[in-house]
Structures are given as structure tokens and as C-alpha cells.
Specification:
45% helix, globular, single chain, 10 strands, four-stranded antiparallel beta sheet, alpha+beta, 276 residues
């Protein structure tokens, strides 16, 4: 009987906004080893190295073997389990960030087809995932290196995707909008400003964000600002008013109200929770 093993790493440093590795690892499963049913709060790619197993999402069940790759989407109920006779060995990486949805839209993964069979890429994908694992660690340097290697691995799926034409153009609009937000979120920018920078109408920008990210540009801008606010509340001694000004809110009352709506607590209580 073959020996089972599991080597995994879970990151405690999730401060990178554009793309961040949540976990990475390799596992040789026992017969019928199962995860789920359950949901994840991030994207999760599994690549089958040997053996076989089953991936169930919605009403579909996929029987997968070596060379296949399946994607778990956030907040989507899934189950996956190893074959009883030839249990699979797989490698995985979990990740999220503002670039994640844009990059995955440029691959052949879709919510209705979350499985890719590209056996000619299997060795490259395996090396890519191994590289992410080898770079693992909780120092900020490790996080940056893991993210860099994740970008390279995801690029493999992009390079071998079918021509996505119009969708890639829409993705470029969203990426350009996100770049503008990243550089200007601390200023009183508007959705109109973002659309002008991208070079499309406000309505076109709205549709592009909805297609790629399933949210409006205004919602993304607000969430981006709050993400930066959380970092400042955790790692600085700035007053709440100073934090509000630093992330582009016009006054601290508006900031506190928005923060509470999205985070379920006040900025002061959020900061205090990290001092307990």
C-alpha cells in the first residue's frame, strides 16, 4: 500500500491586495478521502498529479485523473473525494485579491466549466505549484515571492486559453480601472474620474466591472479603501480621522458609518480587537 502524505502551508500574512496566496500544498490521499460539502472564501486550484478522484459542484460531478485541474470558486458549495481504488495525489494553491477574478476570466475556467484538461501542461503546473510552496513563509518577503510565482503559474493557464477576444478587452478595462484606484484611492476620486482614465463611458465601465468582478466600480473603490483602512488601523497609531483622510473619505463620520456597514464594527472597536 502506498504511503499517504500531506505537505501544506497556510499564510497568516494576507496584506497584499492585488493577489495573495492563502495556502499551498501537496497531498497523496487515502482511498475515498473527502473534503466537503463546504465553501471557501477564496479561489482554490487543485492539479491532479496521479490517480483519480471526483469533483462535485452544483449538479455536476467530474471524474478527474492525472493532468486535470479544477477550480473552486469562492462562496460556492463543492465536494471532492479520492477514488476508492486509485486515490489521487494533487497539488493545490488557494488565493484571492483584486487581480484574481480578472486573471481567471482570461483562462478557460468558468463557473459552468471549472475543470481544465491540459496534460501537456502538467509538468509546468506541478513545478509552478512546487515553486510557490518552496517560497512559503510568513515574512513579507515570502508573501511577495509566493505571489510572484503564483502570477507565473496562472499565466500558464492564460497562455493556453482559447481566444477570449472581447472578454479580454473588458478585462483590460477593469485592470486599468483598478490600477487607477490603487494609485489614487487616497484622493477624492469619483467613478467618472476612473472612467475618463480608462477611456470609456461611466456605463461601459460599470458593465465591465459587473462582468469581471460581479460588483460596481463604486463598490470596488469602497472595498479597496476599507482594506487599506484596516491595514492602517492594525499597523499604525493614526487617529480614526487621520485614517479616514488617508484612504480618501471626506470626513470621519462618513468613514465610520461606511466601515461599520461593511465590517460590522466601528473602526475603534476593530483596532481594539488587535490589541487583546
Amino acid at each position: 500500500m502506498e504511503h499517504q502524505y500531506k505537505n501544506s502551508y497556510k499564510s497568516n500574512n494576507k496584506e497584499l491586495v492585488s493577489l495573495c496566496v492563502y495556502n499551498v500544498g501537496f497531498q497523496k490521499c487515502e482511498p475515498r478521502y473527502q473534503w466537503g460539502p463546504g465553501i471557501r472564501d477564496h479561489y482554490l486550484i487543485h492539479h491532479v498529479l496521479s490517480g483519480s478522484g471526483y469533483y462535485k459542484v452544483g449538479t455536476e460531478t467530474y471524474h478527474l485523473s492525472a493532468g486535470a485541474t479544477f477550480l473552486v470558486y469562492p462562496q460556492t458549495e463543492v465536494t471532492y473525494y479520492a477514488d476508492a481504488e486509485h486515490p489521487w495525489e494533487y497539488a493545490w494553491v488557494g488565493f484571492n485579491g483584486s487581480d484574481a477574478a480578472i486573471i481567471l476570466k482570461a483562462t478557460d475556467f468558468t463557473p459552468v466549466r471549472p475543470v481544465i484538461h491540459q496534460t501537456d501542461l502538467s509538468d509546468s503546473i506541478r513545478r509552478g505549484l512546487l515553486g510557490i510552496y518552496e517560497a512559503s513563509g510568513n515574512d513579507f518577503t515570502n508573501s511577495v515571492e509566493m505571489t510572484g510565482r503564483l502570477y507565473q503559474t496562472l499565466a500558464l493557464f492564460m497562455k493556453h486559453a482559447e481566444d477570449r477576444g472581447t472578454l479580454n478587452t473588458v478585462s483590460s478595462y477593469v485592470q486599468k480601472g483598478i490600477s487607477y484606484i490603487s494609485a489614487n484611492y487616497s484622493y477624492p476620486v469619483s467613478v467618472e474620474d476612473i472612467a475618463n482614465y480608462v477611456g470609456v463611458s461611466r456605463s461601459h465601465l460599470y458593465r465591465s466591472f459587473e462582468v469581471i468582478l460581479n460588483q460596481s466600480p463604486k463598490s470596488y473603490l469602497t472595498q479597496f479603501r476599507l482594506k487599506q483602512a484596516c491595514y492602517l488601523l492594525e499597523h499604525s497609531t493614526l487617529s480614526v480621522t487621520a485614517v479616514a483622510n488617508s484612504v480618501g473619505f471626506d470626513n470621519s463620520l462618513h468613514f465610520s458609518k461606511t466601515f461599520h456597514q461593511h465590517m460590522g464594527t466601528s473602526p475603534r472597536s476593530y483596532r481594539q480587537s488587535f490589541k487583546l
